[in-house]
Amino acid sequence: QVPLVESGGGLVQAGTSLRLSCVASVRIFSQYTMGWFRQAPGKEREFVAVISWDLGRTKYSDSVKGRFTVSRDNDKNTVYLQMNSLKPEDTAVYSCVGNSGGPFPPSIYDLWGQGTQVTVSS
């Protein structure tokens, strides 16, 4: 069973919104810090956002701060990434990540999803 499965990607126009979801198949989701990374063609993978397992602390990359919001629903074992005011440079494969325990934000993640494609046209 794949531990993290993303959905919600697609092709959208610049300025619009999209919400990604990631369902985690783990024993105690509420104890996992969850986050999102992305990788654009020809570029290195970059951190996007993370939300802690406790207190709902969040952290964002400067490139998405103020436009993207990460949230979680522990009853549904799901983490979300609400993306507003999308730009063509947001085009990438977005991957969900998770880490149990450790400091916030994590320096490594022990769970990775396969990713969902987000394409933003100008």
**CA radius of gyration:** 13 Å
**Beta strand %:** over 45%
How many H/I helical runs? 0
- Terminal CA distance reads 37 Å
Q: Quick one: biggest sheet?
A: 7 strands, mixed
Computed structural class: mainly beta
The total strand number stands at 11
Share of helix, binned: under 10%
Helix/strand layout:
Layout: E1 4-7, E2 10-13, E3 18-24, E4 32-39, E5 46-51, E6 58-60, E7 68-73, E8 78-83, E9 92-100, E10 111-112, E11 116-121
Main traits of this protein?
single chain, 122 residues, mainly beta, 7-stranded mixed sheet, 4-stranded antiparallel sheet
Give a quick precis of the structure.
The protein contains no helices and eleven strands. It is mainly β. Strands 2, 4, 5, 6, 9, 10 and 11 form a seven-stranded mixed β-sheet that branches. Strands 1-3-8-7 form a four-stranded antiparallel β-sheet, with no helix packed on it.
